């Protein structure tokens, strides 16, 4: 009994010793050739990040649209003019900002007649000539995304008509100044 | 997404006010009508005919007619990646040749109708979006 126990403990001690020491097994035959590791592609940058950077460089070389999407805020009134000179204006409800990619888009809402319409515009669309900030509100509504204004008391009015009225009033004011 | 039992506003002066979809035409079963699709509808609510005046109503309650969807609440995608969404479902009543029954359209319609050869509807509408 005692001998068996001692044998067991001895075996255990031996097994621990084997684990801690690496054994060397001589290879039979020719040794494999070991090459130097290849240089990393794109300086080790992630493939998707690299791709998006390239795309941004191609579609937004001046960084203007990126700047715009980062500075605009829900509540601002913008006008988007397309390459065929047609334009839409509306109040921003939400902005989806991508992280250094072309996925950013702006959701604008306006009333055409009495019917509210929404349009989600991809900012880096090459068919867009320019996006301009027309008006900032005096006081912004809370939250980053104004989905709650839909059909509420804070809802958007006819933005196009509002801008038209504003412009005509401005013209009137300048005329009265001139006559004075 | 217009399908069986969907209620739509009618935005022309044919006399109907609210219609109910009973069939989406030329679609596989279980698919929905989008903007520009034709549907068969039942008139659920029509303009009341005042006594003594000749009514201009072309349809009355319980009539079955064809319509084309011009606005949907569910967002739909344009080829350039933008998404458009309106605040109500609306249609315009048409005959079997695709010409509108009414002579006026009261509110905005989607731009896509022009590409789908509904030029009459687009030209009658005060605005497209």
TrEMBL record, chain A:
From the UniProt record, which GO molecular function terms apply?
A: structural constituent of ribosome
Keyword list, A-Z:
Ribonucleoprotein, Ribosomal protein
GO annotation, biological process: translation
UniProt keyword annotation of Translocase present: no
InterPro entries according to UniProt: Ribosomal_bL19, Ribosomal_bL19_sf, Translation_prot_SH3-like_sf
Give the CC-aspect GO terms. Answer: mitochondrial large ribosomal subunit
**Protein family according to the UniProt entry:** Belongs to the bacterial ribosomal protein bL19 family.
Protein name, UniProt field: Uncharacterized protein
TrEMBL record, chain B:
Please name the GO terms of the biological process aspect recorded for this protein, alphabetically. Answer: translation
- Pfam families the UniProt entry points to: Ribosomal_L14
Q: Which GO terms describe its cellular component?
A: mitochondrial large ribosomal subunit
Per UniProt, the keywords (alphabetical) are: Ribonucleoprotein, Ribosomal protein
Alphabetized GO MF terms:
large ribosomal subunit rRNA binding; structural constituent of ribosome
Question: Signal peptide: which range, if any?
Answer: none
Transmembrane stretches in the record are: none
- Matching Gene3D superfamilies, A to Z? Ribosomal protein L14
Question: CDD domains, per this entry?
Answer: Ribosomal_uL14
Against HAMAP family, the record matches this protein to: Ribosomal_uL14
Q: What does this protein do?
A: Component of the mitochondrial ribosome (mitoribosome), a dedicated translation machinery responsible for the synthesis of mitochondrial genome-encoded proteins, including at least some of the essential transmembrane subunits of the mitochondrial respiratory chain. The mitoribosomes are attached to the mitochondrial inner membrane and translation products are cotranslationally integrated into the membrane.
Q: Which family does it belong to?
A: Belongs to the universal ribosomal protein uL14 family.
The name this protein goes by in its record: Large ribosomal subunit protein uL14m
Say which species the protein is native to: Spathaspora passalidarum (strain NRRL Y-27907 / 11-Y1)
């Amino acid at each position: 009994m005692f001998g068996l126990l001692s044998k067991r403990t001895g075996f255990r001690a031996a097994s621990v010793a084997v684990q801690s020491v690496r054994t060397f097994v001589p290879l039979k035959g020719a040794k494999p050739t070991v090459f130097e590791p290849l240089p990393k592609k794109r300086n080790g940058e992630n493939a998707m990040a690299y791709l998006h950077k390239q795309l941004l460089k191609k579609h937004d070389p001046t960084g203007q649209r990126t700047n715009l999407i980062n500075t605009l805020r829900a509540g601002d009134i913008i006008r988007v003019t397309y390459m065929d000179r047609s334009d839409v204006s509306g109040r921003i409800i939400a902005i989806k900002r991508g992280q250094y990619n072309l996925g950013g888009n702006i959701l604008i809402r306006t009333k055409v007649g009495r019917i509210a319409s929404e349009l989600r515009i991809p900012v880096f669309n090459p068919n867009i000539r320019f996006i301009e900030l027309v008006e900032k509100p005096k006081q912004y509504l809370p939250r980053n995304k104004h989905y709650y204004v839909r059909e509420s008391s804070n809802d958007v009015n006819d933005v196009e008509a509002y801008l038209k009225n504003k412009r005509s009033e401005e013209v009137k004011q300048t005329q009265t100044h001139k006559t004075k | 997404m217009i399908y069986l039992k969907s209620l739509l506003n009618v935005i022309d002066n044919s006399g109907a006010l609210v219609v109910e979809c009973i069939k989406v035409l030329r679609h596989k079963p279980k698919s929905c009508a989008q903007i520009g699709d034709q549907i068969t509808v039942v008139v659920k609510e029509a303009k009341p005919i005042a006594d003594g005046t000749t009514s201009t109503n072309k349809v009355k309650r319980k009539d079955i007619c064809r319509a084309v969807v011009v606005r949907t609440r569910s967002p739909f995608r344009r080829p350039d990646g933008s998404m458009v969404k309106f605040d109500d479902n609306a249609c315009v009543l048409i005959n079997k040749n695709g010409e509108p029954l009414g002579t006026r359209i009261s509110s905005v319609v989607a731009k896509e109708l022009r590409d789908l050869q509904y030029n009459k509807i687009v030209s009658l509408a005060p605005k497209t979006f």
